[in-house]
């Protein structure tokens, strides 16, 4: 069985490495320029070299987003950046603007091109058009049903990629003007303020000082606030659809998110390939997806146009039942000690969960804690500090440490 490529987000170099360590076949990232996630750390040119080396060592692929809508003044520097990406050998660039495609053609750059979901591709004729312009892969709009995707695959030759997990946007494939209009931050240039997550009330034209809740809720109504996409339960259908890549959204999400979501989908895909007839979604996989920071889940457009169940009208907050505490940077087998880079406070007496590739999970009581100089401490409160923690089981680099939040 040929599985679709599992494509994971890499908002920075650390997340790129975690995504690959947890089973991604490929990663997508942005440079410091020309991507649609200005809020992500993104990769410098030096880091891009390191990222290429890391992906090559693992036989994986790396795609770089170039999907802003550029203005005239940016085209010269964009061309120079495209030439840099060609030189270092990225596996593809992700573009949405025809002008960027024209620059690549005009300069005869040897860069495979993937068409961004920002191009709003929802029919087979559009895919054929882009095929004829040399596009190797089309990232389909999220607003497609299973049947529509199947028909596009039947009618076209280009590789197809679809989103299977992560945030959803009220606007067609993210083509939103609200942020620009309300805050001056352009969503189509990577700086979305996410006004779709804000509270809204109804105002009558002749009574501008009076606002009315659209539903009976004192806090207002989140009329544009989508739930998060989650297609884990559709693994057999996704594999049989004929798409070439399954994409996880989230370049601005945490290391914990990248590790958990990538690990769950990797495990599920491999289990299906091993035994399709006996395959069943395990409850523990869904529990792992519930432990990351997320909004309530929906299957989006996969079964057809969603109804009100795909929206969350009560609030825009995330469900955060677990706190990400740190990342394991090394393991000393002689003393069963993990070297931990701290993100949030770890204290003696805490009951932790340690999570690793393949959805490995075990509980760990913190009985002893040491600073990097070997002195015993009761609490590690400082982010980015290194501490040593005795563990009951062998662990590896980039294992996740987390703790269930107190009620």
Automatic annotation (TrEMBL):
Pfam families per UniProt: Peptidase_U32, Peptidase_U32_C
Residue ranges constituting the Peptidase family U32 C-terminal domain according to the UniProt record: 320-402
Single Gene Ontology MF annotation: peptidase activity
InterPro entries for the chain: Peptidase_U32, Peptidase_U32_C, RNA/ubiquinone_mod_enzymes
Lineage top rank: taxon: Bacteria
Alphabetically ordered keywords of this record: Hydrolase, Protease
Gene Ontology biological process terms in this record: proteolysis
Recorded family membership: Belongs to the peptidase U32 family.
Protein name per Swiss-Prot or TrEMBL: Putative protease
Species for this entry: Halarsenatibacter silvermanii
Lineage: Bacteria, Bacillati, Bacillota, Clostridia, Halanaerobiales
